[in-house]
Amino acid sequence: MTRKHLPIGIQTFRAIREDDCYYVDKTGFALHLINYGKYYFLSRPRRFGKSLFLDTLGELFSGTEQLFRGLEAHKRWDWR
Q1: DSSP state letters, 12-51
Q2: pTM (two decimals)
Q3: Non-local CB neighbours of 28 within 8 Å, separated by 6+ positions
Q4: CB atoms within 10 A of CB 30
Q5: CA separation, residue 11 to residues 5, 22, 78 (Å)
Q6: CA angle 61, 40, 71 (to 5 degrees)
Q7: Exposure winner among 3, 7, 16, 56, fewest CB in 10 A?
Q8: What is the DSSP letter of 62?
Q9: Exposed, middle or buried: residue 57 (CB in 10 Å: 0-12, 13-18, 19+)?
């Protein structure tokens, strides 16, 4: 059994998914923010994934469906 790589130093959603690295799926949370929120201030300490989260949102709105296969957002997002 092979293990996935840890995404140390990788800050783009595309690189993490294409390189088959470990990824904690927060796309369901992202969809909740998109559907039920208005304005958000992302206040988190350094190195806590703010850039990765924003990059994930960018890929979601860009419509790159293949990156989201197997994740929560894939079955709940309108890819048309």
Answers
A1: -HHHHHHTTB-----HHHHHHHHHH-S-------TTSSHH
A2: 0.84
A3: 72, 73, 76
A4: 19
A5: 14, 13, 25
A6: 40
A7: 3
A8: H
A9: middle
